[in-house]
Amino acid sequence: MAIFSSGDELRSLDQSLDAGSIYDSNRYSLTGLLNRINLEVLDCGIVRDDPASLKNAFIEAASKADVLISSGGVSVGETDFTKQIMQELGDMGFWKIAMRSGRPMAFGVLKPVSGKSPARTTLFFGLPGNPVAVMVTFYQFVRPAIFQLNGANQTEPRLTQAIAEAPIQKKPGRTEVQRVILGRDADGKPTVKLTGSQGTGILRSMSEANCFVILGREQGNIAAGDWVDIALFDGLL
User: Fold this and answer.
1) Cα separation, 128 vs 126, whole angstroms
2) Domains in the chain, please, with CATH?
3) Strands 22-23 and 10-11, sheet pairing
4) pLDDT (tens digit, 9 = 90+) per residue, 162-195?
């Protein structure tokens, strides 16, 4: 598994921050998630917002890994080149999904690189740049794909149900994956409550949670007392 983050604003933890820069948490999150399921991780570092640098990173990673996961660079900004490079080097399966968090996500296949050894076809997952969106899309898409590649019988997250302790706002038209804490009411029934603000840059919403609530595409607002589908982290985090 090869991973890298893209963005001129990103800094590793051993670097100091200058004006307009932020620490790259995504590679550390992805490394932990991949190590949890016993996969070998090749950390390709931070790649600049530059087509040539990004193309070289794709080629190098594809020559060494079965799967490449990047974070950032898949939106529609002036410096988001991942889609362009992906179309040059392989086949784009999809780009953008009707899900929150994680809308700007890409998937495709990188073709074998001429002159590189060993020649291999590499799966590519282009995850969003926001830290929570990276972890949500990994859990919903990347992890099941890895399990399927490894021949696992159970690949999709197992769903169960719990009662919403408070209302949850939701617009129909997209799936939403929100971070919640599972508990029990006085009668012993399972209940869930949000970890607070669900912004995609708020890592606390993940660190305090122990499961996701999965709200279907056509669902609207959830009332207190409604049953909802949840997916336990199940040792993932």
Assistant:
1) 7
2) 2-149 (3.40.980.10), 159-232 (2.40.340.10)
3) parallel
4) 999 999 999 999 999 999 999 999 999 999 999 9
